[in-house]
Write a structure and sequence with these properties.
- The complex is a heterotrimer of chains A (62), B (556) and C (157).
- In chain B, 68% of the residues lie in helices and 0% in strands.
- Chain B is built from 16 helices and no strands.
- In chain B, helix 7 runs antiparallel to helix 9.
- The N and C termini of chain C lie far apart (69 Å).
- With 157 residues, chain C is of the alpha+beta class.
- Chain C contains one helix and ten strands; from the N terminus they run H-E-E-E-E-E-E-E-E-E-E.
- Classes of the chains: A mainly alpha (62), B mainly alpha (556), C alpha+beta (157).
């Protein structure tokens, strides 16, 4: 997709090589993603609570 | 042709024209669809009477078919054609010719089915459950619609494999990869609806076969019906994975995880149709539960997506110097409609997803099945998540296709439109969910059931009230009209200039993506195995133990 | 392709929650009998009025507190269109359709049966509160769909 930055659409061999230096060892492991962790757990909590609410409603109507 | 003018288009002019043709049909359907939507909403709340013998259910059929099927499908093909022309190169002359045939067949089918709805010959809602019987031309229109998508999709799949062949050993562009996953899913899924329409409905509506196996037709419909929603969601996800990182000045978090999510969708979104039929007799509880498990498996790619999207935002924000745990939220381009609209769509996918898990929860489905809750759920998924993403995309896709630019004024109007749509969705889907828990039925004209207290309660609350729902619907209508104004401006009036099709740079880990993920034979084979596992025995069972077939009915 | 540490935490949590939901549902469905409807009897949908027990639809008392209600759904109503049971009764509803697909749904209870022609849908409910219970059709069945209703009168003993 690097070739999308150039006007040479369809040219061969431009993908993943010309613009960026090779980065086979680059890892995202060290970046701080603590905000992401908190955000997704917020999502998870919402899902669990909604599910429990309707499950209890189901039981109460049994 | 104006070949001497400077190139204002980011993709070849011929491909842009094809894409625009899809856009025109998509927004024509959108306009009629939202008019039908607001009219049925007002009727249902008891605020208006429909004149001239027009039935609520006819208007509702038009609303569902035009927005859920026509608008989405045409918009998706516009996006896919433009995006693949950009990332894989222009279509060949032959491919483009076939693509136009696909468009023609698809449009012919759409018009045929729509005319039958207008003539009140097909007031069967978009699920067209037997033994309600529409005019044969309605079913023929549906068949042409499906065949049209096969032609249009086949061109794109062939285009991808041509690229792959010419670039041996390279990983394919993410956009093309996701396109192929989406279209393979669509093709496998539509086999079910094609089977029921061609083998059951058309012969039966022509009087060639006498009775229809209702349960079989419903099962084949829902074999298609659930992956259908993923056919809407996956292009929205494509925009989140491929386009949004570019718009926020960041980079996709992980290429391999993005591809893995799409492969999981292909595998798990088809063998799950029974979760729409949990309350039906004739399917064993064990097979229902097995498909419930598979349904829960299709949540996983969405969990992956949630992480990837947040991580993409956080990394982009930190690159711009964001401090603290959540400071990166401030670095997102809130004033840019191209970001804001899809972002709201992402947020609304959280309650939509939670509701979806509840719907699919086996016996718990009794609480919500066929109530307004379900209507609230799919307006959050398709009407909010997918629609807001498509709206946000329109603000760059249309100028990119017409060689014009998004002006600050239209950007501001776009923000107003997105917020109005969001408030409307909140006022509409909030009451829908709660009224559903109280048992208010979906797809039902205004009624108080002879003033039964249970039904009167649906009109008594401040928020939990069918009238609030309708007010939400009116706001949505206003937002929709504003969108129509904006897109007309962007197509015909905006200042000339070059708008690029925004494609994010590959993720940093692209080099580490396992080549296995591109092994399409493996994934299609596994998808087929899962489908055979989940469906063979129950399907044989419903054919062998079928009651006598049903004659046709037209009770409208 | 490596998973970030936090993404692993997220997937453990997410998949764990899904497994927990499934286990709860599975135990309640198969060990405690809260299963959705499954295999039911079949009959000829064009001959409902000649097929017992639907030739004489209505309430049949099974024992002191248990009843079977055989009900025929049609455009746009139910036969019978009213049932009366004392409070505390358990009613087993057995419903079939003479024409198109309907439903037999009692708001605020877990009775929500799809009524497919040719099949007998079944559900059970114990009425612990007295009052007039609305039954409605929540599957579109034609122009009069919104008129399709019946009531269950649950009376004090």
């Amino acid at each position: 997709m690097v070739n999308t930055q150039m006007e040479t659409k369809g040219s061969k061999g431009s993908f993943n090589s010309q613009h960026d230096p090779p980065h086979p060892t680059v890892s995202t492991q060290d970046d701080s993603l603590i905000g992401t962790l908190i955000s997704v757990f917020g999502v998870g909590l919402f899902i669990v609570l909604s599910w429990l609410a309707v499950f209890l409603l189901y039981l109460s109507r049994g | 042709m104006m070949t001497n003018k400077p190139a204002l288009l980011d993709i070849s002019k011929q491909d842009a024209r094809l894409s625009l043709a899809y856009i025109y049909v998509a927004f024509a359907a959108f306009l009629i669809g939202i008019i039908a939507g607001v009219v049925q909403g007002l009727q249902r709340a008891g605020l208006i009477h429909l004149p001239g013998g027009i039935s609520y259910y006819q208007v509702l059929t038009a609303h569902g078919v035009l927005l859920a099927l026509v608008f989405t499908t045409f918009f998706i093909f516009a996006f896919l054609y433009a995006g693949n022309s950009k990332t894989l190169g222009s279509l060949s002359a032959t491919a483009r010719k076939v693509a136009w045939w696909g468009f023609a067949v698809l449009t012919l089918g759409t018009v045929l089915a729509f005319v039958m709805i207008l003539m009140d010959e097909a007031t069967v809602l978009y699920t067209f459950y037997a033994p309600l019987q529409a005019h044969p031309l309605f079913y023929i229109g549906l068949a042409l619609f499906v065949i049209g998508t096969w032609i249009a999709g086949g061109v794109l799949i062939a285009h991808y494999f041509k690229w792959k062949k010419a670039h041996k050993g390279e990983i394919t562009p993410l956009f093309g990869f996701m396109t192929v996953a989406t279209l393979l899913l669509w093709t496998i899924a539509t086999l079910g609806v094609a089977a029921t329409v061609l083998l059951q409905f058309i012969p039966w509506s022509l009087g060639i076969s006498e009775g229809i196996n209702i349960l079989l037709s419903r099962t084949l419909f829902w074999y298609f019906g659930h992956p259908l929603v993923y056919f809407w969601v996956m292009p929205a996800y494509m925009a989140w994975y491929v386009v949004i990182p570019k718009l926020i000045g960041g980079r996709l978090f992980s290429d391999g995880l993005a591809r893995l999510a799409f492969v999981l969708f292909l595998l798990f979104s088809i063998p799950v149709g029974f979760h729409h039929q949990l309350m039906e007799t004739g399917i064993s509880p064990y097979w229902k539960y097995i498909q419930v498990i598979l349904t829960f498996a299709v949540v996983i790619p969405s969990l992956l997506t949630a992480f990837s999207i947040f991580a993409t935002f956080e990394l982009a924000g930190r690159k711009k110097g964001a401090k603290g745990i959540l400071g990166w939220y401030k670095k997102l381009p809130w004033g840019d409609v191209r970001f804001l609209a899809p972002f709201i769509g992402m947020l609304l996918f959280i309650p939509a997803g939670a509701g979806g898990i509840i719907n699919a929860s086996n016996q718990m489905n009794a609480v919500v099945h066929n109530t307004l809750w379900v209507v609230g759920h799919f307006h959050l998924t398709v009407g909010a998540t997918v629609a807001l993403t498509f709206f946000g995309m329109s603000y760059w896709l249309l100028p990119a296709l017409t060689g014009r630019t998004l002006t600050p004024f239209i950007n501001r109007l776009g923000i107003v439109q997105s917020i109005l749509w969001t408030v409307g969705m909140f006022l509409m889907t909030g009451p829908m969910h709660l009224l559903g828990l109280l048992g208010a039925p979906r797809r039902t004209a205004f009624t108080t059931y002879q003033d039964h207290p249970t039904a009167l309660e649906w009109f008594e609350g401040i928020f939990v009230n069918q009238v609030t729902m309708s007010i939400g619907g009116m706001l949505l209508f206003v937002a929709g009209i504003l969108l129509i104004f904006n897109i007309i401006y962007l197509i015909f009036l905006a200042p000339k200039g070059k708008t690029p099709f925004p494609i994010g740079e590959p993720a940093l880990d692209t080099g580490q993506t396992p080549p296995l993920l591109e092994n399409w034979k493996l994934w299609v084979g596994l998808a087929a195995l899962l489908i055979l596992f989940a469906y063979t025995i129950p399907l044989l069972d419903m054919i062998q133990h079928a009651p006598p077939g049903s004659p046709p009915y037209q009770p409208w | 392709m490596r998973l970030h540490r936090y993404e692993k935490y997220w997937l453990y949590f997410g998949v764990g929650a899904l497994v927990l939901f499934l286990a709860t549902l599975g135990v309640s469905a198969f060990a405690m009998g809260f299963s959705p409807p499954g295999h039911g009897d079949v009959l000829d949908p064009t001959k409902v009025e000649e097929t017992p027990p639907f030739d004489e639809p209505g309430l049949v008392q099974v024992d002191e507190n248990t009843y079977v209600a055989n009900i025929v759904a049609m455009t746009f109503g139910y036969t019978p269109n009213e049932l009366e049971v004392p409070v505390g009764s358990t009613v087993i509803f057995r419903v079939t359709s003479k024409d198109v697909v309907h439903s037999f749904s009692i708001p605020k209870t877990n009775v929500n049966i799809m009524v497919t022609p040719g099949y007998v849908g079944e559900a059970k409910h114990t009425f612990t509160e007295p009052g007039s219970y609305l039954v409605l059709c929540n599957e579109y069945c034609g122009t009069g769909h919104h008129f399709m209703q019946m009531t269950i009168e649950v009376s004090e003993p």
